[in-house]
Specification:
CATH topology of the largest domain in chain A: D-Maltodextrin-Binding Protein, domain 2
CATH class of the largest domain in chain A: Alpha Beta
Distance between the termini of chain A: 55 Å
Number of helices of chain A: 17
Radius of gyration of chain B: 24 Å
Largest sheet of chain A: 9 strands, mixed
Structural class of chain B: mainly alpha
Shape of chain A: globular
Strand content of chain A: 5-15%
Order of helices and strands of chain B: HHHHHHHHHHHHHHH
Largest interface: A-B, 44 and 37 residues
CATH class of chain B: Mainly Alpha
Radius of gyration of chain A: 25 Å
Number of domains of chain B: 1
Number of strands of chain B: 0
CATH superfamily of chain B: MetI-like
Number of helices of chain B: 15
CATH architecture of chain B: Orthogonal Bundle
Oligomer: heterodimer
Helix content of chain A: 40-55%
Largest sheet of chain B: none
Structural class of chain A: alpha/beta
CATH architecture of the largest domain in chain A: 3-Layer(aba) Sandwich
Order of helices and strands of chain A: HEHEHEHHEHHEHHHHEHEEHHHEHH
Chain lengths: 461, 294
């Protein structure tokens, strides 16, 4: 009796599971089928197709209610975007935009892609997803005529020559320094490593209570940026923006030479350890956070730090009086004989997913965001220069200094890292370096190359 | 037909378990089976996966970082589990009597356990952060600055700090289980022991501890499971750092998954599952015999 009962239960469970999985997979197939069928229909006629309708489709009703899902990883702009969304929804009563913010957006989107809960518009963009055709081709959109050519180039996919994302702003990264301290000690912006180190040493000698250079080691992405700008900068300036991007995306080891003696990575490791040994960085470099970094700077407890222009808004909020003391300069050349570098790259990018059921409405939303007056508001809020030529924004107190830094340093772009070896992962390796886990700089460089290659090979089979 | 209905009615209690079985199958067995399938591929969550057999498992055993993380996880468990039991038992013994403020002490000891370990980690980070944390400030104000140290920035001490915070948070849980166990021991056994001339220590050894065995079992099992799968407290306090010094296996799995090593991370997750299952199963097996003998 018991045995029969058990086998009866098991078979019921099996059947239920089979039915459930069959149902799930057929739902996915249905979604794919309907979206691909509606694509050619959409390109034929401009009116939105009724897929997520809350009311029955009537032939004389001009528009159906559409909900756009906007997925962002940009924490600074969540509230501003909500305001812009309200304006957009007022103009377009049939379109609702839901903003979802996630701190770890670039990882969460993987889950979204896998589960089929794909956003319509997102700020998350990676080469892997481009190769998988996850984004809509935006190359033929009208707004490109208003975009700075350098930014359009940075938004171009190296492999297909098309644009799958659009950026509204330009960001920069370099060395932020305390102008007051520099003037007091008669220091000048450093171009070579020797100058940089002697500046820091002067600060340490004459102002023992001030940390010369502040590292926010607990937030490993800040350390990852040090590699992305200073170490990779050595490679990037050699080949120019376009060729350097190709080299990183295609892992051209003859150009990258990560483990080369005297190369960018080894030099960076050596320089960082030099600074640590000479006591020129904060003692708690491994446990200090990004917040500590900002606070220490605006309280005059640290003299300089490496960061991007995105930090400016927070610095000014923390201490509005301090704004006039903020200086901005390129990164010094870590390898003798090379030039200082300044990051000048795209910021605030938007892409429309190819699986979106409402690409026309998504494009409408982007066009709304790209209007000059909205871009002006956005740029002034973010304290970041716009990438559109017809927008004149008074984006912040460092406007002139940023322009000077762009002239003084070779302009480099962000690095397209393989997804298995992100800036965070590189930052963790730098933490290990600071904790003394590598026997030499060349050991670090070899480990870096190994980690990069392993990750690149995993997604470029 | 009537016979069938009667049979169903007679076994209704069995059929009542069906929804739970279905849910268990759908949300545990099915994903587990899927996971086994994924772990045998080189899936990266983006391109089509290829079958690679047991290569992910082999890679795990030859990966230095993975081995290191296993050791870290084990050290954490070996540090936490005994201390959790020790302090839980001590508090339970302390509170198993007429003590003024007993309820208050119990609540205070137990309260941290209801707070999310993630929040607990951030609070303790705020207190213990070297140089800038609250404790550093207080020590410096009291002129005891020399007592301050780089607890969280030192690879060796970071894990110890994590263990201490974890024990502090969850000793209330073990205490509650032990209290319940203690209250299940009949008082006349203590009287009988006293008559036989047993002092406090002997009573503890010969009456209390043997009869607490079921409570010990529960606590050890839950502590093993909890400590080996530790995640939030480490993420909040050190994020696996400095470097990889406190990276537990669960954090490693997450990082591998986000790094698009989907097949590999699923394999490691299965290995972690076995790492937890085997000790727990062995422990339950051996203690079942012991309980009989008692």
């Amino acid at each position: 009796m018991n045995r029969r009962l058990i086998s009866w239960c098991m078979s019921v469970v099996m059947i239920v599971m089979l039915v459930a999985t069959a149902a799930c997979s057929s739902n996915n197939d249905n979604d794919k089928a309907s979206s691909s069928a509606s694509e050619p229909a959409k390109s034929a006629e401009p009116s939105p197709s009724p897929s997520e309708s809350t009311q029955p489709a009537e032939s004389d009703k001009p528009k159906e209610k559409v909900t756009l899902k906007f997925f962002t990883g940009k924490v600074e702009t969540v509230d501003l975007m909500n305001d812009l969304i309200k304006k957009f929804e007022a103009e377009n009563p049939n379109i609702k935009v839901e903003q979802e913010y996630q701190k770890d957006a670039s990882s969460i989107i993987k889950v979204k892609f896998a589960s089929g809960d794909v956003p319509d518009i997102t700020t998350v963009y990676a080469q892997d997803y481009v190769d998988q055709g996850k984004y809509l081709d935006l190359s033929n959109e009208a707004f490109w005529s208003r975009v700075l050519p350098a930014i359009k180039e940075l938004n171009t996919d190296m492999k297909t020559g098309k644009q799958f994302r659009a950026a509204t702003n330009v960001t920069m990264a370099g060395i932020f320094y305390n102008k007051q301290i520099f003037e007091e000690l008669g220091l000048k912006e450093a171009k070579t490593w020797a100058e940089f180190k002697s500046n820091l040493q002067a600060i340490k000698d004459k102002k023992p209570d001030v940390t010369p250079m502040f590292l926010a080691g607990k937030d490993s992405w800040t350390l990852g940026h040090l590699i992305e700008f200073m170490a990779h900068g050595v490679i990037k300036q050699k080949y120019g923006v376009a060729d350097a991007r190709k080299a990183f995306i295609n892992n051209e080891s003859d150009k990258l030479q990560f483990d080369a003696a005297g190369g960018g990575i080894e030099a960076f490791a050596g320089r960082l350890l030099e600074l640590k040994k000479a006591g020129l960085i904060n003692k708690d470099a491994l446990t200090a956070t990004y917040d500590n970094q900002k606070e220490a700077f605006v309280n005059g407890q640290s003299a300089l730090f490496s960061q991007g222009m995105w930090v400016l808004g927070d610095l000014i909020n923390l201490n509005p009086d301090f704004a006039r003391h903020i200086g901005f300069s390129p990164f010094p050349a870590i390898v003798d004989g090379t030039q200082p570098v300044t990051l000048s790259a795209e910021d605030s990018v938007y892409a429309i997913t190819s699986e979106s059921k409402h690409p026309e409405e998504a494009k409408l939303f982007l066009e709304f965001l790209f209007r000059p007056e909205n871009l002006k508001t956005y740029s002034e809020f973010l304290k970041s220069p716009p990438a559109f030529t017809d927008v004149s924004a008074d984006w912040g107190p460092l406007k002139d200094q940023a322009a000077a830094a762009l002239q003084a340093g070779v302009n480099i772009a962000f690095t397209d890292t393989p997804s298995g070896f992100s800036g965070d992962d590189a930052g963790r390796m730098v933490q290990e370096l600071l904790a003394g886990k590598y026997s030499s700089s060349s050991a670090f460089a070899s480990a870096y190359k190994e980690a990069w290659d392993k990750a690149w090979n995993a997604t470029n089979k | 037909m009537r016979v069938w209905i009667r049979k169903v009615n007679a076994n209704l209690h069995h059929y009542m378990a069906l929804p739970a079985i279905v849910l268990f199958g759908l949300f545990f067995l099915y994903p587990l089976a899927q996971g086994v399938g994924i772990s045998l591929t080189d899936s990266n969550g983006v391109t089509a996966p290829n079958y690679v057999g047991l290569r992910n498992f082999v890679d795990f055993f030859s990966d230095d970082r993975a081995r290191h993380d296993v050791m870290i996880t084990f050290y954490f468990a070996l540090g936490s589990a005994p201390l959790l039991n020790l302090f839980g038992l001590l508090y339970a013994l302390l509170l198993d009597r007429k003590l003024p403020g007993k309820g208050f002490i119990r609540a205070v000891v137990y309260m941290p356990a209801v707070i999310s370990p993630l929040i607990m980690g951030y609070i303790w980070y705020f207190i213990l952060q070297p140089e800038r944390g609250y404790m550093s400030h207080v020590l410096r104000e009291l002129g005891l600055g020399f007592l301050d140290g780089n607890w969280l920035g030192n690879s060796s001490s970071a894990l110890a700090v994590l263990i201490i915070v974890n024990v502090w948070q969850y000793m209330g849980m073990t205490m509650i289980v032990y209290l319940a166990g203690l209250q299940g021991i009949p008082a006349d056994l203590y009287e009988a022991a006293k008559i036989d001339g047993a002092g406090k220590g002997a009573a503890l050894r010969y009456v209390t501890l043997p009869l607490l065995y079921p409570a010990v079992k529960i606590n050890v099992v839950t502590n093993i499971i909890g400590s080996l799968s530790v995640f939030e407290i480490i993420v909040a306090m050190t994020d696996g750092g400095p470097g990889y010094a406190t990276e537990s296996l669960s954090i490693y799995i997450l990082r591998m998954l986000y790094g698009s090593f989907t097949g590999y991370s699923t394999a490691v997750a299965l290995i972690l599952f076995l790492m937890i299952l085997v000790p727990v199963a062995l422990f339950l097996r051996f203690t079942r015999k012991a309980e009989y003998e008692l």
